[in-house]
## 1
Amino acid sequence: MTTILFHGEDHAKAKTSKNRLLYTTPILTKDLHLLGESEITISVTSNKPAVNLSVWLVSLPWENDSKLITDNIITRGWADPQNNESLSKSTPIRSGTFHTLTFKLQPRRPNY
């Protein structure tokens, strides 16, 4: 079995990707302060019995000259759809069946 890794940084930098959904806001005209935990609810389906999902909230455009990958990452989180109902028991994903996932994004302390 071949494992293919897709890195979030590569997706953020790419103009297009068949392995990414990109949602953007209009360009912000002033600073925006996020307070508290960020949470996402998403419905997903897959043609594979097991997948992992990651969500990144980033600042675009991606700063290519930055030395740290984290310079553009605001927060991110992961979900495992086959463990949506139980952390101790995996349930294979049925192709064409949507699963609703709600999970918190991990906070990141700013660089002070």
## 2
Amino acid sequence: MARTGEHIILTDVLDNGLTVAYRRAAGEVECCGVSIMAGSRDECDGEHGLAHFVEHTIFKGTRRRRSHHVINRMETVGGELNAYTTKEETFVYTLAPAHNTARAIELIADLVVNCSFPAAELEKEREVVADEISSYLDTPDAAVYDDFEDKIFAGSSLGHNILGTRKTVARLGREDCRRWVDRFYHAGRMVFFYTGPASDSRVFSLARKYLGIIPSAGEACARCAPVKVDRFELARSIRSHQAHTVMGVRLDGLDRCYNDSLALLNNILGGPGMNSRLNVSLRENRGLVYTVDSSISRYCDTALWTVYFGCDDEHSSLCRSLVADELSRMAGEQLSPRALNMSKRQLLGQLILSRAGVENTALALGRSTLRGDVYRSPAQLEQDINSITSGRLVEVARLLVDAGMSSLTFH
């Protein structure tokens, strides 16, 4: 077992190779589940949308339970059963009142090992996913991200949409779902996580009892790093009353020591605060956009920094220039000590709020353990953020400038 920081994280490895991560949290709520190293980038040709489809249909029955039994297992005690898929991971988890630990762990084990994908249930859920795809395509401020990533990760499985298309999802059947689970849902690619008031000895004992049945290994599945693509500036007509633009930079091989600095830079430029430089420049000072924000997407072998804004089509070129100007400013001048300290305090406050609640804490624990990252306590986070210098921010901003921003506009 390993202990880290003042907020103790305990980890253990079961005989089948499954890592169990535990963090105690006082209160009357517990959250536990599995994080699985399997997402849309692991799909082969003809499988687009399969990771997400399995996430939806894994609840539709097991060899021991029918769909309504799965649903009611946690809900009859006031709990919730949930899941989500990213490009690299799948999470299946429960949130429930305390003292339902055994019920939750047994159910999670049953789902990931004994899921049966009944044909009738798959057909019903296929329609649900198809509606989700249609709804997403009707939201251009979301769809533009997918097209942008498809371009910047051209030739890589990182590029395609997590949901797939109506056509690809229509072809997916029980055998595809079962093959996906057999390929990826095994102990070597999985972490079980728990946050709540139950003792570590109880959680580890229950994990050994119920999760030891998870297969220890599946197929060897290597990921290929995306190839570098040339900078692009593209536009696509969707006959929208507003232009939706994503600008972004790929950061391949970014050293982990830059992660916190990039997070702080991102927060200053286009974070959630109304005082972000891009919001002040494009919205507050000029009234050109309704919304503008920037974000970071991190993958195991690359990262992506993006800016999104929506504006009248006639202003899109000016807005792109203003975004580039703000980034150039960050690359050309150091923040004053006062401005740097204020920016650090704002980011730290946002990080604390993002961890509020047992669910967020548990999911962060599952994600960090799966990725091999250290789960940092608030004190360690504060120390790491406060160590960032103005010079380091300039250095990271120059990396973004030198990489050259690509852009895609829907209008």
## 3
Amino acid sequence: MDKRKAYATFLLGKTYIGHLFSRLAVWKRGQGYTAFKEKYLADNFFELTPEERISFPDFQKCINCGICIPSCLFSVDLFNDELPDPENYACSLSRPLPDLWTSIDNIYRCTLCGACETICPQGVPVTEIVRFVRRKIGQIAPELVPYKEVMTNKEKGLNIFGERPAPFVYTKRPKPAHLLYMGCLYSSKERDAGQRIVSLLDNAKLDFTIMDEGCCGRPMDTDGDISDNNLNKLLDANIRTVITPCAQCYGHLKEKANGNFTILHITEFLSDANFKIKTKSKVSYYDPCVLYIKHDIYDAPRQLLKASGERFIDINHDKSLLCCGAGSGVGVLYPEMAGAVSKERLKPFKEAGTEVLLTECSYCLQNLRRGVSTNDNMKVYSLSEYLYMNM
């Protein structure tokens, strides 16, 4: 045996014997793993939950085909020099786990609309990858999360703007059968629209109540957990049907209901109750991505608009071309970017001669209004708000 082999054998034996003695010295079960985690903490290693371990193989399915790229208006048409496309997210963020925090510059600019997922031949869950990365950034480098103040507001039971808005005006019922869950935007920044929605149901003598809400937990979409305060209030109210006009709240509550209560988006409720919109204006409807892509709510709002006859200009939406630009906190964190997407989404409606554009998502409502200029012959309203205005 030459000297190099002998020296290598010596080192191997030394390491093996040292390992045996170190194992004998570790008398508490799990202490070795704890030491490992502590040693590599600075390298941003982290644990995967059992659920994440199950999901992770799906995260790695991207084959770089590029089919998803045209679906993302942010990365393709408007900000192609600044933001990665969905393929980039799927490939670069699903593999080098310790380096996920380096995506901080763009990971919070994804609206999680899911348009890329509708055309992915591999079924790569891009939105789940982005949520996963955001969760881990919150664990690894919480100081980098761009909306710490918002999360603090949520923990205090306030809305995302740090407010506790005044109650809406409506007729109190002694034993309400429904709970109307308004959401942060309708209770604050889109307050006038919110009050009209409340008044619509109040005038229709719906037996409902509105609780003191904080944030539902969805807008910033870091961990997907509903606020315990709101969940407990819903359970304590012992009301089995919750109606909400906010598409974000609807999606989040739907995921967390666990059979404890029925969640209806307000368009579903109004359609089943045979409400109709009658108007002299040329109206169109903008499908929120959360409702159409995630929950297949497409027919209900159109059922409400049938009474307007030829005045209704139905621009059928491709699921891969829905995002208004404001979802998942982008409208709050990056309003200029969200507004640029909004202007692009409004073009086909302007070309069709739409005078009144309706939607039923508070984020779409705010952002589409952001994209309308003073020279445009178009108004944007919540569908249920507009129904109240034309009763």
## 4
Amino acid sequence: MAAVLPGFWPQWVGAAVGLLLDAVSFLVSSVCLLLIARRSPETTRREPVPRRRMRTEIAEGVAFVARDPFLRYFTWMGGLSNLGLTGYGALLILFLVRDVGVSPGTIGVLLMVTSTGALAGALLARPLADRWGTARATVAVQLAAGSTALLIPLAAPGWRVGLFVLGQFVVALGVVAGNVIKGAFRQQYVPHALMGRVVTSVQLVNFGTMPVAGLLAGWLGGELGVRPTIALMAAVHTLACATVLLSPVRGLRDLPTAPRSAQP
């Protein structure tokens, strides 16, 4: 429903009012967050924890990720994948309106349908990991999410709109399922004391490519056209996903539960 409403708002109340309503929704969310109790229950410590320099702690997290083959791979692969995903996503609405000829209301319906792929991915992650193993499931969902992205730029008026729906649905399913499996892997794999610093280091790379992708896609869209840029960005995501065949994950049934240095 959240995907459908933005598609119909411009037709019902105009684009400006639609943007205003969207901004108000964020304001309401901010107020709700401010109303949450700020104090958490105090915990007692037997010994005071020595204060350390922030720079030292950040360096430890970065070094742990850089040294570990699994974390290192998932980090740069995620950044490259997000470069492609965010890049074509930035032009997706323009592509559907101008090139595919979809009305704003229909775009909302299409986005709602394709977004259910993310829900399906979240629900399927555990069964796939249990049945195939976490490593094999990672390979499978990553290859599925990568290859089907190439269907999206093939969308056109008529029945070929279905290529967009199929491609985006499976991309969402594969990406979310992969994120769930890899998130569970990190929870077991990374020492508890380093968890915050490791996750922050990983997310800095994963999310850091996203604003770059938006700028790059906008520039390429003006130079090459919308459809070629979407095809190029989808290919970047596909390439990132395909690297799993050359990664430390290949050949394993399950992802390890601890670094080699920590294994007995």
